[in-house]
Amino acid sequence: MDRISVNPQIHFGKPCIVGTRITVQSVLELLNEGLSFGEIIRDYYPDLEMDDIRACLRYAIALVAAEDVHLALA
Question: Which of 19, 24, 62, 72 has the fewest CB atoms within 10 Å of its CB?
Fold first, then answer.
């Protein structure tokens, strides 16, 4: 994940897009609100590239894929 970094000195270690202080969470929240990649870049983060937004999605997918799910069986 060369476009995402985790640095304890930036946003308390939340994952950010490299070279920015834009958190992965911020981008994902905008996507969740229904904004397109183009709208995010145009209206919120004009310095981002489409690949930065894709990297945020890949990062989130990797986190979910790595998570163990424990189900309580009744």
Answer: 72
